[in-house]
Design a protein that fits this description.
Helix content: 25-40%
Protein name: Zinc ABC transporter ATP-binding protein ZnuC
Order of helices and strands: EEEHEEHHHEHEHEEHHEE
Radius of gyration: 19 Å
Strand content: 25-35%
Strand order of the largest sheet: 5-6-7-3-8-9
Pfam families: ABC_tran
Largest sheet: 6 strands, mixed
Number of domains: 1
Mean pLDDT: 81
Number of strands: 11
Oligomer: single chain
InterPro entries: AAA+_ATPase (IPR003593), ABC_transporter-like_ATP-bd (IPR003439), ABC_transporter-like_CS (IPR017871), Metal_Ion_Import_ABC (IPR050153), P-loop_NTPase (IPR027417)
CATH topology: Rossmann fold
Keywords: ATP-binding, Cell membrane, Ion transport, Membrane, Nucleotide-binding, Translocase, Transport, Zinc, Zinc transport
GO molecular function: ATP binding
Length: 268
Amino acid sequence: MSDALIRLKDVSVARAGQSVLENIQLSVSSGEIVTLIGPNGAGKTTLVRAVLGLLKADSGEIWRKPKLRVGYMPQKLHIDATLPLSVLRFLRLVPGVDRDTARAALIEVGAEKVIDSPLQGISGGEMQRVLLARALLRKPELLVLDEPVQGVDVAGQAELYALITQLRNRHQCGVLMVSHDLHLVMSTTDQVVCLNRHVCCSGHPEQVSNDPAFVELFGLNAPSLAIYHHHHDHAHDLHGEVCQPAPAHDHVHANTHNHDHGDSCKHG
């Protein structure tokens, strides 16, 4: 795969003698959005840390394109409430960034108005856009986004996922994203990898949502599953694109955002 940015082959990670990841196969190419889903404790963040080179795999191979530029957006950022830090000063912590560069990045993510605001005073959605702007400042070939819609309401989540797709289209970067919300990323991701310490299933979102391994992890009988209802007045093709009007009907999707019983799920 000549346009591959990263490839993981048979990667395993253990902590304190306990297996965290087992025989992971994963690749991300230029212009491709790959989304990791799975219950809490499934190893998603561990896998991201391995991809970033922040932890060493116990076995297997992690290949990265030589001199690969990576932009990373963490799940959360903890800033001391007493620290006088504006959005601009925060972005200028990236080497070589001046006000014009920071402003251009904020314009690209739709957050220019907060450039001089205290970092602690902006909303959750604005914070996620600032973190995304910071990741873009590295001119990344690969964007790694750990729960990019954390702390954002549902309407804001849909906007952020759409923005991520726009950025991919504009820059043709690869995107590796962690998400709980398959129903929201359905139309904005190319491949889904369902993780529960090992790869349970992978493929296009519509394939994965019908896979027995996915249904077992996130089926409607799961004890802590929230159900997301919405009203459809259109149809989708195999790639998740709207293709034609369809008779109005209700769909029920599993919203896995609050699922926290990964260890109680059967797998094997």
